[in-house]
Design a protein that fits this description.
Elements: E1 13-16, H1 26-53, H2 60-89, E2 93-95, H3 96-129, H4 134-137, H5 140-158, H6 160-166, E3 175-176, H7 183-189, H8 195-228, H9 233-266, H10 272-297, H11 299-317
Parallel strand pairs: 1-3
Antiparallel strand pairs: 1-2
Helix pairs in contact: 1-2, 1-10, 2-3, 2-10, 3-5, 3-6, 3-8, 3-9, 9-10, 10-11
């Protein structure tokens, strides 16, 4: 994938910058990155195994959680090769095709994750506002349709972007400001009129992340309105507690995303180190924290973990 030779086809090669000013310490910086990637991969893989193996987790909210864990695994595996290649081997070059492929998977999976968060908000909305109809509304078919819609939406809206970028000449140094290929970053390096491509990128953001945020906010406004009408404070607290995991994941996903978008669009003189930090936080913290949040906040996941580890200890003791 990295350092692909495109000279025969006269295709451009892009260069990653790593962490500017800390090139000599890259090998040491790679250690925490390796640990974080390992935790993210293992944590999400464990969630997938638990949801598949434990029958009491065969519920819509945990199916959505499994979809989220699968998306996070894809995001981690999409960025890990380029990030670790920079820090381990000082490999900074990537060909156009490889860069477009990485960009497609990163943006598509980010859109899918946003869509799954909307589906999880809908799950909490139904569970709190219409608990008697929960099993009738959120059937296996409904879960499959919502998950499939998130995937199809992301892939369909993202598909034109690589073709847009292939039509542009790249005549500069082609130095990317992140440790992976990011559409606005690549578009800024293109030579030519990028008005339409930039506008389509904005439409993509509005049709995915902006719409999703509106749906999530509307869902929680309705949830809060329903909770406020409950008779006892104890029931209010229990209802809010069921939403705590999802709210944490929404904040973990959208805050770095919004911060990175603002940095790209409105702050041209920002420190490169801040750019690098925010870009890595955007795609690394979500896969890292999602399994940790659910492991700490969800009683069903905690019970499944204890059961699995207890069984393993019993088998090891025998």
């Amino acid at each position: 994938m990295l350092a692909f030779n495109n000279t025969f086809f006269n295709w451009p090669t892009f260069s990653f910058i790593g962490i500017p000013g800390l090139e000599a310490a890259h090998i040491w910086i790679s250690i925490p990155f390796c640990v974080l990637y390992l935790i993210a991969l293992v944590g999400n893989a464990v969630l997938l195994i638990l949801v598949r193996a434990e029958k009491n987790l065969h519920e819509p909210q945990f199916y959505f959680l499994a979809m989220l864990a699968l998306t996070d695994l894809g995001l981690s595996l999409s960025t890990m090769p380029s990030v670790l290649a920079i820090f381990w081997f000082d490999v900074r070059d990537i060909g156009l095709n490889a860069c477009l492929t990485q960009m497609f998977f990163i943006h598509t999976l980010s859109s899918v994750e946003s869509g799954v968060l909307v589906a999880m908000a809908f799950d909490r909305l139904v569970a709190i506002c219409a608990p008697l109809n929960y099993t009738k509304i959120l059937t296996h078919y409904t879960v499959a349709c919502l998950s499939g819609a998130a995937l199809i939406r992301g892939a369909t809206l993202l598909a034109p972007l690589p073709f847009f970028l292939r039509t542009f000449p790249f005549c500069g140094a082609n130095i990317l400001s992140h440790s992976y290929c990011y559409y606005p970053d690549m578009l800024n390096l293109a030579c030519g009129d990028i008005t339409f491509s930039s506008a389509y990128g904005l439409v993509f953001v509005l049709c995915t992340f902006a719409v999703d945020v509106v749906f999530i906010l509307a869902s929680y406004m309705k949830i809060l309105d329903t909770i406020m009408k409950l008779e006892t404070q104890d029931r209010n607290w229990r209802s809010l507690h069921t939403c705590a995991c999802h709210l944490c994941m929404v904040l973990v996903f959208y805050l770095p995303l919004i911060s990175l978008a603002v940095l790209h669009r409105y702050t041209q003189d920002t420190s490169p180190i801040l750019y690098t930090t925010m870009s890595n936080a955007y795609l690394l913290m979500t896969p890292l924290l999602n399994p940790l949040v659910y492991s700490l906040k969800s009683r069903q996941i905690q019970a499944a973990l204890r059961k699995r580890f207890w069984v393993q200890r019993v088998i090891a003791g025998e």
